[in-house]
Design a protein that fits this description.
about 220 residues, alpha+beta, six-stranded antiparallel beta sheet, disordered N terminus, FHA_dom, Cell_Proc_Reg/RNA_Proc, phosphoprotein
Length: about 220
């Protein structure tokens, strides 16, 4: 890190600290999004007339209290941030050496509401993990995952309009498929009646009163999260 980088980062942390002491509202996901975009823009390096290289590995540091709050949001938050950053890089015509990887760390020197982003460019082997977001919680999916009201379901949903084994999601490592398991009230996929269909990323499944969003998130190979 150069002298100018150190000065700018120190100034930014000072400003963050002022707002944190004033409002004490805790860190918000939208602030992380803005900080990631700013980090990418700051470290954009032209390597050719039509090629601008930006970092792809990001460590977001925050207070222990904020870290606990972000952890409660689960992998869905990291997946959403990764998707937003990927789209932003594409819009700006930035290039990365491999898909972006974002992780959170606790920093005891940061107070509630403050954050510090460190970035680097490194080739990272990633694996794509399917998840299902239900009522603000993120559930990891296996090769075959049954969703229903009964205890025998892999993901149990407390909804009287859902059958004990309502629907299932099958993942082959690259693609997903959703299947209704002969439920009493049926299921929908993106508003259309579901019997059996491919499940694109960001699709919305509805069963009873419960809305479920299917996502695929990037993780470094071997990440145990």
């Amino acid at each position: 890190m150069g002298i100018l980088d150190s000065f700018e980062r120190g100034l930014e942390r000072g400003v963050n600290g002022l707002f944190a002491r004033t409002f004490r509202s805790g860190l918000q996901p939208v602030e992380i999004t803005a900080a990631l975009r700013r980090e990418v823009d700051t470290h954009a390096s032209p390597v050719a007339r039509d090629r601008v290289l930006v970092p792809n590995r990001f460590v977001v540091r925050m207070s222990g209290e904020d870290h606990a709050a972000m952890a409660r949001l689960g992998d869905g938050l990291v997946g959403e941030l990764t998707d937003l950053l990927t789209r932003y890089a594409a819009e700006q015509r930035y290039q990365m050496v491999s898909p972006p990887v974002i992780s959170f760390e606790t920093d005891p020197s940061l107070t509630v509401g403050m954050l510090d982003v460190r970035s680097s460019s490194e080739r990272v082997e990633v694996e794509w993990a399917p998840v299902l977001e239900i009522d603000g919680r993120t559930h990891a999916l296996g090769q075959r995952t049954v969703i229903g009201r009964g205890s025998e379901a892999d993901i149990t949903v407390d909804d009287g309009g859902i059958s004990r084994k309502h629907l299932e999601i099958v993942w082959d490592g690259r693609r997903a498929e959703a299947r209704d398991l002969g439920s009493t009230n049926g299921s929908t996929l993106n508003g259309a009646r579901l019997t059996r269909a491919a499940l694109p990323v960001d699709s919305v499944l509805q069963a009873g009163r419960t809305r479920m969003v299917f996502r695929v998130v990037a993780r470094p190979t071997g990440d145990a999260r």
